[in-house]
UniProtKB/TrEMBL annotation:
Cofactor(s) demanded: Ni(2+); Mn(2+)
Annotated ranges, domain Damage-control phosphatase ARMT1-like metal-binding: 52-320
Name of the protein this chain belongs to: Pantothenate kinase
Pfam families xref list: ARMT1-like_dom
Coiled coil (UniProt feature): none
Transmembrane segments: none
Gene Ontology terms, MF aspect: ATP binding; hydrolase activity; metal ion binding
Keywords noted in UniProt: Hydrolase, Manganese, Metal-binding, Nickel
Lineage of origin: Eukaryota, Viridiplantae, Streptophyta, Embryophyta, Tracheophyta
Any one GO BP annotation for this protein: coenzyme A biosynthetic process
Amino acid sequence: MESSGELVPFPLLTTPIESNYRACTIPYRFPSDNPKKPTPTELSWINLFLNSIPSFRKRAESDDTVPDAPIRAEKFAQRYSAILEDIKKDPESHGGPPDCILLCRLREQVLREVGFRDIFKKVKDEENAKAISLFKDVVCLNDAIEDEAKRVENLVRGIFAGNIFDLGSAKLAELFSEDGMSFLASCQNLVPRPWVIDDLDIFITKWSKKTWKKAVIFVDNSGADVILGILPFARELLRHGAQVVLAANDLPSINDVTYPELVEIISKLKDEHGKLIDVDTSNLLVANSGNDLPVIDLTTVSQELAYLASDADLVILEGMVRLLQLLVETGDCYLPWPCGVTY
C-alpha cells in the first residue's frame, strides 16, 4: 500500500543534519553566482533532462492503460520542455534554483497531471518475469563459488550488472529499445578492476570478520537489477546471519521497483516453505521508503523505514544517479557504484 503519514529523517544521518547532510552533493551554484542566470552545471543538467524527453514521450505513447495516450504524451513533452526552458531563462522559476531532485519531481508532476501514473509498467512486468525465470540459475552459480571472498565479489558484480537496466538514462533506454539487455552479458562486460572508486576489498575483509546484525538496502530498478543483483546479495546476507530490510519506492517513477511490486516479486520467488532457494526469509523485510522519485532525499523517509533502520549497522544505497547525487553519513555505509556506466 502507499505510505501515509509524515515523512521523517533517516535515523542514521549524522546530527545536526542541517550541517552534515544535503541531498544533492553536486555544487550546482555558489553564493557568488547570479541568481537570475543559470550556471554551467545547471544548464548541463537541464539539457540532460531535455534530451531524455523523447524516450519518455515514446514510453508514454505506448501506455495502453491511458486513453488517448499519444495525445497526452505530446502534452507531457511540450509542457515539460516549456518548464525546462523557463528554468533556463530564470533559475528561480518553478521552485528553483534547479537540482536533480527538482528536475525529477517536475517531470513526475507533469506526467501525472496529463494522466500518466506508471509509463514503465509494461516493461517492468516483462523484465521482472524474465529475471524471475533466471533467479535460481544465478543463485546456484553464486552458491557454487566455494571461496567466500570470490563469491561476495561475484555478488557485487551482479549488482553492478543488474543496475545497468536503468531506463531513466536516455542512452540506456535507447540501448534497451534496440537490443534489449542481457544480465549475463552485462556481467561479462563490466569494467575490470581496479575501478575508479574501488573499496571492494575493504568490504570483503569486513564481511569475513563481522556479522552485521541488520542491513538496510535501498533498491533501485525493476527486473535484473533487483531480482538478479540485489536479491541474491540480500540472500547471502541472510545466510551470513543478518536481518535484511529492502526499502523500495512508494510510487512509480521511471522503471524503479515499487514497494507493492517488490512484495509480489519476493512472494513469487519463495518456495512453498517460504524459503529463497533453501534460505529462510523470516529475517527478510520489505519497507516502503516513502520516496516517489528516482533519487532519494534521506531527510524525508517513511516512519516505517525510519523505525526499521534505527538499529541498522549496514546501509547500502544502490543506483547510478542516487550515488552521484546523494551523500549519506553512517557508521558503515557502502555505496555500490557501477563504474564504466555514463548517466
